[in-house]
Each structure stands twice: as structure tokens, then as C-alpha cells.
Description:
binds nicotinamide-adenine-dinucleotide; alpha/beta; 41% helix; 478 residues; seven-stranded parallel sheet
Amino acid sequence: MTVQVNESMIRNVVAQVLAEVGPAPAVSGGQQTLSHGVFDCANEAIAAARTAFEQLSQRTIDDRKRIIEHIRRISIDQAVELGTMEMEETKIGRLDHKINKLETLGKLTPGIEFMTSQAFTGNRGLAIVEHAPFGVIGAITPVTHSLPTITGNAVSMIASGNTLVVNPHPSGKRVAAEGVRRFNRAIYQDLGIDNLICVIAEPTLESADVIFNHRDIALICVTGGPAVARAALNAGKRAIVAGPGNPPVVVDETADLDNAARCIIQGASYDNNLLCIGEKEIFVVDSVCDGLMQAMEAAGAVRLNSQQIDQLTSKAIQPVGEGEHRHDAATKEFLGQDPAVLAAGAGLTLNQPTDLLFGETSADHPFVTVEQMMPFVPVVRCRDVDQAIDYAREAEHGFRHTAMIHSNNVRNMTKMGRILDTTIFVKNGPCMAGLGLGGEGYLSFSIAGPTGEGVTTAMTFTRERHCALVDDLYVLGK
Length: 478
Ligand code: NAD
């Protein structure tokens, strides 16, 4: 009897044997190691990701799809374990939403289906514009979504044929390493390529610097606040910058107040307001301000009085930095904590669980001006919609990130859209509707405002290649 042996059968046998013996122990001295992407040294991580890139370049698009399916499967199937790990390590946000983020990114991050080519035909033949990978991408990820950002970045970047080296936030490094190890192990066991996603086990500003400056890093993608955004823009190579936000919400006199209240609570309370797109401050036209606050209470949010807001503010927002860099920032004790913790800081004991606190403040209150990332939103009473939009523009600080309006007046929507000029602009929905969650569109946790790529996808991480065939294959003409 003859047995036909093909490549896939060999791979399956190899994968089965490897699964039984487990990964080989790491050895030093230049011999082969199975690090599954976790490295102490940034230079070694980049070298491994470069080798992985060369291997990936030899594989088919179907293989890329298979690789991404492993990342999706692990994100979804192991979301409870990995989400719990992320919650225990970072100690900010909400466990249910840590789990939900991994599931959502695993399911919905666009993959190779977003890769497109263009064709130009005419009497002089055919030209095709294709989208090629850059190579190894250096990624910096935030503490607010450590493994979720890596998951989304990995899907997008590998879909377009790249590999990546991640410098995670030091306070989310363990879950980052564990997730990356699991992704790589599964990919290696199935396809025999290791280190498509590499992560620095002990990330520092120095390891970030090595990644920024290494000649084998073709592109940088940073997701974080103002400091890392500035550092990436000064790195001397192309950077995709998913920077900070401070999303305002305008509510005008035509809004459906019950819907507005529900949407604000849903968006602002998600992961205790850690989302960069999350509703951070509300500007309401005077004639409906009391109505909105009543609707928020009816929908389960708890209102703080001005004394309670003062007490919370003095503990939750404090100055940091020296000299010209001195500015107000959220304190660690309150950032991303539960409403009950914030309420206690305000001198209030909650009688029943709530997702969100709110209260009336002035337009220049620290809770309005600082990207506070807490489940308390300030409500600012405004003379009319023009003043509300004006305050919203100031509070957004020109980040051009995200803004929301609740209105049934298209002129007001248009005016705010033009003036705020944000990457994401949601009308009559919660912030996540701008990422296709409860609205149309698609998902990414790296939204590149400052550099203009918007909600990143596989296509974001590509370089154009034009391929021209002269005088042939224009089958429509003479
Ligand atoms: P952060 O700015 O403190 O840190 C982000 C990452 O940058 C971390 O890995 C950190 O170690 C690194 N970093 C900081 N300064 C650096 C420097 N000078 N050089 C190199 N690396 C540096 O932010 P965070 O608290 O982790 O995350 C919250 C911030 O990220 C918020 O401002 C939020 O709006 C933003 N964010 C933006 C998006 C987006 O898609 N635009 C998504 C998520 C979070």
C-alpha cells in the first residue's frame, strides 16, 4: 500500500510530537531556543521577530489566516483566565470588561479580509497597486488594555504580513508575556514558526528606545498618552501614533434624554472609564440639564453633590511634574477604580451597586480638563448648543480623538462634527458605537488620531507597491 505524504500531514505529525514533548528548554550561546516570543533583551527580540518575518514571507495568505485564527481562538477561549490575570496585575478597570475586551478583539478585529489591491487598466496595459508588509513593527502598549491591545495589533499586523516586537506597559507586562507565549506556542505547534509576536519581559524606557532606534524596526506603532506619543514622533522613523483623548459629550434640547443617559452610562462606565474613547465630560443645554440628570439617576447612576465632588477631586486629581511640565493628573488610588471606591473618596456610602457616578461642575473643573479615566463624569450646564460645542472643543484639547452628541438636529450634529474635527464622532450612541460595537464600522484598540491613520486595520501597516505590465492584459480595448 502506498501512503501519500503531503506537507500538511508532516506538519500535523511534527505538531503532535512537539505537543507531547513540550517546548525545548531555552539555551544560551546562539543555539536554537523556543522562547515563544518572550525576551529579556530587546535586540534579541528584534532579531527573532526578523527571522520570523522572513519565515512568514515564505508562507501563503491561508497560513496567515490560520495564524490569526489561533490568536482569535486563544483570546476568546481563554478570555476568563487571561482577563482575570490582567485585572489582578494591573488592578484597574472591571473584571467583566477585561474578559469582554479579549473576547471582542478576538472575534471582531478585522483580519486579512481587509487587505485589498487596486488595478488600473488602459491602452498602455495594466498596473496593480498591492500592499506589502513593512517587516518588523515596534509596538508600545498601554496599561489600560495590555493584552487586548497586543491581540488587536497582532491580528492587524500579521494579517498584512508583518511581525511585531512589543514593549508593554511595565504594570501589564506579565499578562502581556503570558498571552504572547500562548499565541506563539499555538502558532508554532501548528505551523512551525515561533516569535511572530515578541514581547519584552522587563520593559523599560531604555528597551523602548532600543526598539525605536533599531535599524530592523521598519515602523513604530504606539498606543498611549502624551509622553509616548511625543517620543514616537521624535523617533526619526515612520510612527503610527494612537494618542490620548478626552472625549466630550454634547446633549442638546432635541435629544432623547433617556437614550442619552443610557448611552453615557454604558460608555463612561465601561472598564471604569479606561477606554480612550470613553465619555469623559458632558455639556448639556440648560433647558434639558435637569432632565438629563434625572434620566441618569433613573437609569441607575448616582449623583454627587458639590461638596462630595470637591472631596473626591482633592484626592483623585493632583498636580504632577515639575516646572513647565507641572500639570494635573488622575491619582493611582482612584484611576480606573470602582464607583464604590470613588464614592468612599467623596464621603458617600453607596446603598446599592452602581456603574457610574456623576455631578454638576463648571467647565474648567479638573474632572473636565484632565483625562481622568474614572467612573465619575462631570455634567456642565451650558447656555445653548453653541456654548456646549465650544466647551467640548476646549475640553478635547485638539487631540482630534473622539466626541459624542445626543441630538435630533442635524445642523447641530454637523456644526459639532466640523468644529471638533475628531477621528471618531458618534451621534446618539455610546462611544463604542464608533468602533462598530452597537453601530456600523469596525474595531481596533489603536486609534491613530495624531498621525491620521484612524481606526487601524491590516491595511494601516502596509507599504504600497506598484506593478506595471506595459501594453498587455488590457482585454477590454484595442
Ligand atoms: P502611558 O502613556 O502612561 O503609557 C503608554 C505606554 O507608553 C506604556 O507602555 C509606557 O511604558 C510607554 N511610555 C510612556 N512614556 C514613554 C516614553 N517617553 N518613551 C517610550 N515609551 C513610553 O499611558 P497608559 O496609562 O498606559 O494608557 C492610557 C493612555 O493611553 C491614555 O492617554 C489613553 O487615551 C491612551 N490610549 C489611546 C488609545 C488610542 O487608540 N488612541 C488606546 C488606548 C489608550
